[in-house]
Design a protein that fits this description.
By secondary structure, the protein is α/β, with parallel strands linked by helices. Helix content is 52%, strand content 10%. The relative contact order is 0.11. Residues 192-394 form the Fe-containing alcohol dehydrogenase-like C-terminal domain.
């Protein structure tokens, strides 16, 4: 029996199901919040995803004090400062973030400023800077990929210095995450595919990287099973509410998993590719996942082979020789990527993105070595190793 030490932490209340949004007024009252601010973006509001939230609050006589709906795809310190000013001017006392990764990260940063004071969010960057709880905070994700509703991190761009500021603290975790399939029913196919593979990568790296533990394994393997069974189902029938809920739950479970076990080279490469070539995070994850698994395979044969059960089901797992299961798991992921490419042209190689020049690969390889995620990769990565993975991912 392993006597390895580990910690597992997830205090976020998860409210999930077909009527989850109707519970928001109760959750606000339970923490004494009376003047909430909604933080979202134009796309979410344009898709009328605020309507069920506003209706639920109206039916319970819960006032929404102000709605800020102008969060950009890559939020910045200036946006955070602007929203904090609106929050204070309207005497708000709580925040509801509705959207994908950018509105959620922005809301986390706004909560720091309105709770701690001041206008310079950069003063709170880093880990362990926050020392006390923040204002009441609730998250309603509208994509099924980032897992940001259960993570203790946020990333905000400082456009003046051309850097991305990381914020890490357990105080950034929301009071509750509300998972309702109505919020993802209108996701376009390409975003459904990319965010699904984002969640898949979170779960696979959580299950195979060196920070894994029995509790994170349970969340990660459960998430992989849900994604494997439901992602293509949703691609073929976007209005399948039950399958949408499964994917949303999988995203949350994967978020809990990687928050407690960390991620590895897929994320190191993906963060760097996204910063240099401006490719969406979920696409980056899908691009690199099989190539990194092949690079790590000798260090992760046992857990990777075990994942075949969750990727392909018990029959294929049982008839696959144990020694062949790790490669079979990678093949299953490749098969899923091929199916997504067929349905919505989700890129499988760097060439297929149309946004990456081969001359940029060495720069990406060098920069990825400075990404913190690489510390948890099960195999040490040198510059030549990163270059080799990028060459394979080129296509």
């Amino acid at each position: 029996m392993s006597k390895r030490y580990y910690e597992f932490f997830c205090p976020v209340k998860v409210i999930a199901g077909n009527a989850a949004l109707e519970h928001i007024p109760y959750e606000l009252r339970s923490v004494g919040a009376k003047r909430p601010m909604i933080i979202t973006d134009k796309g979410v509001r344009g898709a009328r995803l605020l309507d069920p939230v506003l209706s639920a609050c109206e039916d319970s006589n819960q006032e929404i004090t102000v709605i800020f709906d102008d969060v950009p795809p890559d939020s910045s310190t200036d946006v955070v400062r602007e929203i904090a000013k609106v929050y204070r001017e309207n005497n708000c006392d709580s925040i509801i973030a509705i959207g994908g990764g950018s509105p959620i990260d922005t809301a986390k940063a706004v909560n720091i400023l309105v709770s701690e004071g001041g206008d310079e969010i950069s003063a709170y960057a880093g880990a362990g800077v926050l020392k006390r709880p923040l204002k009441p905070f609730f998250v309603i994700p509208t994509t099924a990929g980032t897992g940001s509703e259960v993570t203790s991190v946020a990333v905000i761009a400082d456009t003046r210095r051309s850097v991305k500021l990381p914020f890490t603290s357990s105080f950034l975790l929301p009071d509750a995450a509300i998972i309702d399939p109505r919020m993802t029913l209108t996701l376009p196919p390409h975003i459904t595919a990319a965010t699904g593979m984002d969640a898949m990568t979170h779960a696979v790296e959580a299950f195979t990287c060196i920070g894994k533990n029995p509790l994170s394994d349970a969340y990660a393997s459960g998430a992989i099973k849900k994604i494997s069974h439901n992602l293509l189902k949703v691609m073929d029938n976007p209005q399948d509410s039950d399958a949408r809920l499964e994917l949303a739950e999988a995203s949350t479970m994967a978020g809990i998993a990687f928050s407690n076990s960390m991620v590895g080279l897929v994320h190191a490469l993906g963060h760097t590719l996204g910063a240099i070539c401006h490719i969406p995070h979920g696409v980056c994850m899908s691009l690199f996942l099989p190539y990194v698994l092949e690079y790590n395979i000798e260090q992760i044969r046992e857990p990777l082979g075990e994942l075949l059960l969750h990727l392909e089901g018990p029959e294929i797992y049982a008839r696959t020789p144990e020694a062949d299961r790790p490669q079979a798991s990678i093949s299953a992921i490749r098969k899923m990527r091929d199916a997504l490419h067929e349905r919505c042209q989700l890129p499988r190689t760097l060439q297929e993105t149309g946004k990456v020049e081969k001359s940029q690969l060495d720069r990406i390889a060098g920069a990825c070595l400075d990404d913190g995620s690489i510390m948890y990769n099960p195999r040490e990565v040198r510059l030549k190793d990163a270059q080799a993975v990028l060459e394979k991912a080129w296509g």
